Amino acid sequence: MVPSDGMFAVIRATIRKIPRGKVATYGDVAYAAGFPGAARQVVWALHGSRGLPWQRVLGAGGKILLPGVKGAEQRLLLQGEGVAFIGLRVNMKLHRYAWPGLRKNKPKPQKKLKMSS
DNA sequence: TCCGTGACGCGAT
DNA sequence: CATCGCGCCACGG
């Protein structure tokens, strides 16, 4: 699957890989699909989606961004898959999908340290 | 063709 | 925490 197949095709394929009981953020999907920063395109891909695990895609921090009844439905679907919530957010610590072959943590910027004397 | 719109993200402040 | 600015790009008017 390469970008030349079309951005949405790649994004959809990426979303399909999220297993039951796991979730991913829009940013994660975009990054994993090879389009870092293109979170909005993920939204579009979901719009034209059919047969995708759309409920497993959340906002940054595991927050459901889909408003209204759809949002409530999303939460119920996820809970039905065993996904645990902490308040309004999904417990990402437990359910964030670890994309195979992707850097989990960003490189540490080297905190400014003060030198004595 | 230009322009606003999206279930947005992220680093900096 | 909250806010700002910028990046992202297909689509419809």
Description:
This protein is mostly helical and 117 residues long. 38% of the residues lie in helices and 7% in strands. The protein contains five helices and four strands, in the order αβααβαββα. It has a two-stranded parallel ribbon. The protein has a two-stranded antiparallel sheet with strand order 3-4. Helix 1 packs across helix 2, helix 1 (7-16) packs across helix 3 (39-47) and helix 2 packs across helix 3. The protein is globular and about 35 Å long. It starts with 6 loop residues before the first helix and ends in a 22-residue tail after the last helix. The structure holds a DNA duplex (13 and 13 nucleotides).
What's the layout of helices and strands?
Layout: H1 7-16, E1 24-25, H2 26-33, H3 39-47, E2 57-58, H4 68-80, E3 85-86, E4 89-90, H5 92-95
This protein binds a DNA duplex (13 and 13 nucleotides) through helix 2, helix 3, strand 2 and helix 4.
What's this model, at a glance?
The protein is mainly alpha-helical and 117 residues long. The protein contains 5 helices and 4 strands; from the N terminus they run H-E-H-H-E-H-E-E-H. Residues 113-117 have low confidence and may be disordered.
Determine Rg (CA atoms, Å): 16 Å
Shape verdict = globular
What is the average of the pLDDT values?
86
- Spatial gap, N to C terminus: 57 Å
Structural class: mainly alpha
Count of discrete alpha- or pi-helical segments spanning 4 or more residues: 5
Task: Label this structure with key terms.
117 residues, single chain, DNA-binding, mainly alpha
